[in-house]
Amino acid sequence: MKKTIKKIAAGLLAVSLAAALTACGGSGNKETTAAAGESGNKKVLKVAMECSYAPYNWTQSTDENGAVPISGGSDYAYGYDVMMAKKIADELGYELEIVKLDWDSLVPAVQSGKVDCVIAGQSITSERLQSVDFTDPYYFATIVTLVKNGSKYENAKSVADLSGATATSQINTIWYDNCLPQIPQGNIMPAMESAPAMLVSLSTGRSDVVVTDKPTGQAALMAYPDFKLLDFSGTEGEFQVSDEDINIGVSLKKGNAELKDSINGVLSKMTKDDFNKMMEEAISVQPLSK
Questions:
Q1: How much of the chain exceeds pLDDT 70, in percent?
Q2: Is residue 94 within 8 Å of residue 79, measured between CB atoms?
Q3: CATH placement of domain 143-232
Q4: Where are the domains of the chain?
C-alpha cells in the first residue's frame, strides 16, 4: 500500500515516498517489514523458498522457461512455487525477488520481516499457524510412499504392509511427524535436512521407505528410475491425514492481512485444475526430466 506523506508546512516542498511502505510488508494496522522495498517505480515482493525441492522449486544455471534470478547469486530459481510467485507478483503489480533459504529458516525469515512471504510447498498445519499466517491453499497434495524396485515392500498395498520398514522423510514435515509414526513397528530414522537428502537415503539403502507428497515423488522417479511410487490414497490402508496435512499455502507474517487478502484474491481466480496443470508443467520442465 502506498501512503502519501502530508505536507509538513506551507513553505516546504511536498515530499512523496512512493511505496516506501508496501502491502508486502503491511499488516492489519499498516505496519511494515524491513523486506518491503522498490525497484524503480515498482514495489518488490520478496519470496523465500529452498530452491532445492523439485518440482516445487529448484536451482538452475539459466533463465530457461522463465526462471527468476536468485537474490545475491548468479543462479536462477524455477518450479511450481516460482510459477505461482510470478503469477501473484504480476497480478499485484510487484517486481519479484526470490530469496534462497534452508527449510528451517523459512518461518523465521517471515517472522523477522526478512522476506514478505514463503512459497515453498508448506502445509498449512495448526503448529505453523501458531507462528505465521497462511493464505488459502495454492495446491492440494496427496501423500505417497517411495520404495526401491525389488525391495520387500515394492508390492505394499497399505500402510500396514510397510510394517517393520526403516523409514525417513524431511525434517519438520507432516510426512515425518504425522505419517511415519503410522507405520507398524517402523524403524524411524532421524529426519533428513532436505528432500534431496531423504531421496539419497532411499537410493543408498539406508532406508526402505520414504514418505512424501505426490509431486515430489513423481519428480524423484525421473532422477531415480529404480524407485517405485506407492499411492494408498482412497483406500482403507491409506495414511490418516487431515486437510491441513495436504493443503499447501503461502505463509506470511502474522497480522499481514493486506498481503494475505491480496494473494487470496489471485488464488480465488484459480481452480484445482489450474493448480494441477501448472504442477504438470513444472514436472515436465524440471532439470531431472531432461
A1: 85
A2: no
A3: 3.40.190.10
A4: 37-140+248-289, 143-232
